[in-house]
Amino acid sequence: MQLHSHPALSSRQKRFLERQLPGAEVVADLGWGGQYATVLEVVHEGRRLVVKATSPSDHHALREIAAHCRWVGALAATGDAAQAVLLDAETHVLVFEHLPGRIVLEHPAQDDPHTYEQAGVLLARLHAVEAIPDGGTYWPGQREKIRQLLERPHRIPTAQVRVVRAEVDAWGPMPTTLVPTHGDYQPRNWLVDDSGRVRLIDFGRAELRPAVTDIGRLSRQDFLRDAVLEQAFWTGYGTDLRGHEMRRAQIVEAIGTAVWAFGVGDEDFEAHGLRLVEMVARGA
User: Fold this and answer.
1) Are residues 223 and 243 in the same domain?
2) Is the per-residue pLDDT at 34 higher than 60?
3) What pTM was estimated for this model as a whole?
């Protein structure tokens, strides 16, 4: 199929891509259920590319464009993230060089400590690109965010809401440093090739945040499965970030997941979020 004829693209996106990549052919659909973007592997003049397109109201594309313009270049220069070819904020179309490999999620590499050591190294490199003192504003902002989330419809048990509210209300000052974070750092956003090399994809949730916020999902998923994977990750990262900020990051992740998933009707993701809330409510 010709790229500019793909049914998932808007008319504006089709016209843009026909001008920029004339004659490009779609060879694979790289999207998966629930993803916010259309992601296509294409061939243009013998070159393998990945095209990502989102709706005009989607903010992930703008975040990813900003991330590639500001932070991802250091990883792309060494082949550890994709080189950007086209980044168009008006059409929400992003085009990247194709990276070899497949997603680590549900691949044998998901249980390989070497995967996590590499992931730690790559994350440390991303976090080192920029560092900005927050002036003591980040965690108070997250406290207000949690309060607002808990006012929205959700199915978090009342007793757990009370526990979380009490802890969050008691958060004292904690100045922190904001660094470029991936925002969804876990095996579904890592690629592994036949040699076992790991690369990073999907910077649509990238933002300046405390470094520890990039560990929340791993800490509640793969690290719980196997402590060896966690140790390998910290070996690669070089600094152990576990501490009070980790606890705060886990609470934000738990409440955000449970409330957001209920709001969009994603029952499986909501169940995951409710498990996370139960864990933080009992102090785990």
Assistant:
1) yes
2) no
3) 0.93
